[in-house]
Amino acid sequence: MVIGIGNEFRRDDGIGPAVADAIRRLDEDVDVRTVSDDPAALLDAWDGTELAVIVDATAGEGAVAGRLRRWAPDQAPPAAVSSHALDLTAVHALGRVLGRTPQRLVVFTVDAADVGHGVGLTPAVAAAVPQVVSAIVAEIEHHRGQGRGRVGLPALDVPT
Questions:
Q1: Contact assessment for residue 54 and residue 107, using Cβ atoms and an 8 Å cutoff
Q2: Other CB atoms within 10 Å distance of the CB of residue 47
Q3: Strands (E), the chain
Q4: Which residue, among 119, 117, 136, has the nearest Cα to 56 in the 3D structure?
Q5: Contacts 24+ apart (CB under 8 A), 22-26
Q6: Cα 150 to chain centroid, rounded
Q7: Cβ-count burial of 140 within 10 angstroms (0-12 exposed, 13-18 middle, 19+ buried)?
Q8: Which CATH number goes with the domain that contains 139?
Q9: pLDDT tens-digit map of 76-86
Q10: Torsion over CA: 96, 34, 144, 108 (sign)
């Protein structure tokens, strides 16, 4: 499953839906969804899946527009935060308490330049879309090929 978090009418916050649409076109066997910043919708979407890959925009101190990062719950929490006040570490912790988590979770974030009102990604974030899609495809292929996750791999931090 691939879940794109965001709002396409808030500029770079639309990275999640943009990547989700690209994955949907590439692989019809992958369950692809988009959600806003509602924790309950995220819990419903990933509940009971083998692999959930999330894509979200991030903002905060040290953000570099278009930078791609990879995070999994077995790693230290990311420094940058969701661009819309959704704390994925807290949602995952809540899901664990409720017994509503995927077997494996991988989060890809892209640092946003602009999350104001408007449509269309900024150039730096738009340029990151192919990288994110490739990274997600690699996660899915690895999962399908080995049936298990990439436990222990370092966080991905690729400036664009």
A1: yes
A2: 14
A3: 2-5, 32-35, 51-59, 68-71, 81-82, 104-111, 157-158
A4: 136
A5: 22/129, 22/133, 23/133, 23/136, 23/137, 26/133, 26/137
A6: 16
A7: buried
A8: 3.40.50.1450
A9: 666 555 555 66
A10: negative
Length of the chain: 160
Measured distance CA(80)–CA(59) in Å, rounded: 6
| Residue 102 near residue 88, CB atoms below 8 Å | no
Domain that holds residue 73: 2-158
- Give the chain's domain count: 1
What token pair was written down for 6? 């965001």
Taking only the tens place, the pLDDT of each residue in 106-151 is: 999 999 999 999 999 999 999 999 999 999 999 999 998 875 444 3
